[in-house]
Amino acid sequence: MAVREIRVIPDPVLRTPCAEITEIDDTVRSLVQDLLDTVDDDGRAGLAANQIGVSLRAFSWNIEDEIGYVLNPRIVDLSEDEYQEGDEGCLSVPGLWFPTRRAWYAKVEGVDLDGNKVVIEGTELMARCLQHECDHLDGMLYLDRLERATRKKAMRTIREQLYQD
């Protein structure tokens, strides 16, 4: 369908929790195709619907040559005693990467375009992606998960970038 423009901070759609998809119709099918088309680019690991301006619970991913999507995703399991530390970035916070702690393993349940239950799980990068995209759908950015001093630095950098443009 279309590669859509990415919404960037401080766009309020990024801070708005997304609504459940209650009916799978042509609008939702078009949204999924746009999510898949837009995430299918080098350096893109995941994309939530609100990042393209649609406040519905859906996201796509592009991890290790696998592209997929899920509707109405919810995290149902996270490793409680194994974590990963690493720099995380976001298409909606372009050019900035900060150390973000995430669970090493994550499991998400949702549905596909036929209404069938879908389970996506993974470790490391896939786990990070699942957590990151579900956060987006809840109106959170990875910046909200940063340690206080790092978050302060990140917000200062973002303010500086906004005022330079």
UniProtKB/TrEMBL annotation:
One record GO biological process: translation
Q: How is the cofactor bound?
A: Binds 1 Fe(2+) ion.
* Cofactor section: Fe(2+)
Q: Which GO terms describe its molecular function?
A: metal ion binding; peptide deformylase activity
Q: What is this protein called?
A: Peptide deformylase
Q: Which InterPro entries match?
A: Peptide_deformylase (IPR023635), Peptide_deformylase_sf (IPR036821)
Active site as annotated: 133
Q: What is its EC number?
A: 3.5.1.88
Q: Which PANTHER family match?
A: PEPTIDE DEFORMYLASE, PEPTIDE DEFORMYLASE, MITOCHONDRIAL
Functional note: Removes the formyl group from the N-terminal Met of newly synthesized proteins. Requires at least a dipeptide for an efficient rate of reaction. N-terminal L-methionine is a prerequisite for activity but the enzyme has broad specificity at other positions.
Keywords (alphabetical) are: Hydrolase, Iron, Metal-binding, Protein biosynthesis
CDD domains in alphabetical order: Pep_deformylase (cd00487)
Which family, according to UniProt? Answer: Belongs to the polypeptide deformylase family.
